[in-house]
Amino acid sequence: MRGVVEVAIITPIVLSTAEAERIRRDLVSNIGDVDDFKARAESYQLDTEDRALYDDLIEIEFLLGR
Amino acid sequence: MDAEAEESVDPRLFEQAKIFATALTETVRAVVPDSDAFVPMILRESLSVRQGPRAGIVLTVNKKPLFELKASYQCCMDRYDDYLAILESKFEIIPHLSAEQLMRFEYVRDYRNAPVAHAHVHAPRAAFDYLMDNAGTATRRARQRGKRDDLAPIQDLHFPLGGHRFRPCLEDILETLIDEFGVDHELGAMEALADGREAWRRGQTKAVVRDDPESAIGVLRKLGYDVEWTSDEPEPPIHWDRLRKH
């Protein structure tokens, strides 16, 4: 380990497709219109909370290969 | 983790994810010791890595929060199945108690319309507004801006940062915030950041050699090494696309 702080090895979370789809469904249910939400994100119109939600959505969609 | 997910994970990706997330956490904790760990998530061949708090790591000056730093990565194994390849990375700097981002350093490996590694600056700037409003229309990006009814924001510009291989790493961003804004940090943090930067750049050096083995061979021969191709396989090509991409 390098650095001044030694960190315990971090074990990855492994998702199944079904789990990832469920996470995306939960996110979408909070978001509503996904296209409108993404358009607002791309034009910098999201507040802090919504941007965190957007980050979650983008992450899960990347993992799902969308 | 269910059995189906566990079976479908490449053990090399799993191992690389552990190493990467642990190293990133060490880097950040060298500056902010109580920050949450980076969380690697894998689905089949894809890996995402982000630090725990959704709002970002709080960076302080004289113990008072000044910025939040958010870092995220999208990865897979490289074409040789040896190392992690970064598909996208994003470092966002957000002033504390503001919804407005200040700067973003991004890498998008497959970007076609802008430099693959670039910075976005979010700030009102009259001179930039004038330039962007009066920009030419010979390029696709300039034309897209020209179609807007309002002034394009400065954060629409992509400032290049060194392409696929020579872009800044997280350690560079953290050290810049410490240097330029006096962000609080632990004793030994700068040394830890230098260690992290060294590891990043040595990794990038390996990637550059794979992009351009011919140049690497030439340099090694000049240094006095005896380098010959001994495999029965064809010699690896130069990846011109990687060397030429904006």
Rg of chain A: 16 Å
Which stretches of chain A are low in confidence, meaning pLDDT under 50 for 5 or more residues running?
none
Helix and strand content put the structural class of chain B at alpha+beta
Largest sheet of chain A: none
Gap from first CA to last CA of chain B: 40 Å
Percent strand of chain A equals under 5%
Query: Can you give the mean pLDDT of chain A?
Result: 91
Question: How many beta-strand elements of chain A?
Answer: 1
| Gross geometry of chain B | globular
Helix content range of the residues of chain A, please? Answer: 55-70%
Give the overall form of chain A: flat
Indicate the radius of gyration of chain B in whole angstroms.
21 Å
Distance between the termini of chain A: 35 Å
Order of helices and strands of chain B: HHEEEEEEEHHEHHHH
State which percent range the strand residues of chain B make up.
Answer: 15-25%
Q: Mean pLDDT of chain B, nearest integer?
A: 89
> Treating each run of at least 4 consecutive H or I residues as one helix, how many helices of chain A?
3
Give the structural class of chain A: mainly alpha
Helix content estimate of chain B: 25-40%
Number of strands of chain B: 8
How does the major sheet of chain B shape up?
Answer: 8 strands, antiparallel
Question: Care to describe what's here?
Answer:
The complex is a heterodimer of chains A (66) and B (246). With 66 residues, chain A is mostly helical. Chain A has helices at 17-31, 34-42, 48-63, and one strand at 13-14. In chain A, helix 1 (17-31) runs antiparallel to helix 3 (48-63). Chain B is α+β, with helices and mostly antiparallel strands and 246 residues long. Chain B is built from eight helices and eight strands, in the order ααβββββββααβαααα. In chain B, strands 1, 2, 3, 4, 5, 6, 7 and 8 form an eight-stranded antiparallel beta sheet that branches. In chain B, helix 5 (170-181) packs antiparallel against helix 6 (189-211). The mean pLDDT of chain B is 89. The interface between A and B is large, with 33 and 54 residues.
